[in-house]
Amino acid sequence: MFKASNVLPAFATALLCTVWMILAPMADIPGWSGFAGCTAYFAAPGKGTKSLPATFACVASGIAYALPSLNLGALIGGQAFGLFMTFATTFLMCFAGGSKLLSFVPGAFMGSFSTFAAGGDMYAVGGILLGVLLGLACDTLGKALVSASASRS
After folding, report:
1. What is the DSSP string of the chain?
2. CA 96, 102, 108, 111: dihedral to nearest 10 degrees?
3. Is the C or the N end of the chain the one with fewer CB within 10 Å?
4. Are the C-beta atoms of residues 45 and 51 closer than 8 Å to each other?
């Protein structure tokens, strides 16, 4: 019922995410922001270091769309402007998905909505990006534990 190939990656992820939740607040990073990036890593079509450039690019593109929207929205205000920015950023994120580097459109949306949720807080933005590395660390440790367990059997 419980296989090492399921339990050990789950253990690795739980362990590293708990460590993240201890360390992130020490750097004034909201803990949840790392989980947004970690989720983007695990949702991305590829895993490992080979997929990092595309995952980072997609998440960062979403952040890059959200920050001007937040800043311009604070200056201009109004529902009509907010709706225009929603249309424009959604269109641009989906359109950019036609390029190979930005084809993981959900990653762009994760970066964007997480930045909006944080109100543009740069510590949270950093946490989102660090969370992608947290996902890589969880994945790598989980695979290493499974490999070590298999070699002992």
Report:
1. ---HHHHHHHHHHHHHHHHHHHHGGGGT--HHHHHHHHHHHHHSSS-SGGGHHHHHHHHHHHHHHHHHHHHHHHHH-SHHHHHHHHHHHHHHHHHHTTSSTT--HHHHHHHHHHHHHTTT-HHHHHHHHHHHHHHHHHHHHHHHHHHHHHHH-
2. -130
3. N
4. yes
Tokens 């909006």 found at: 116
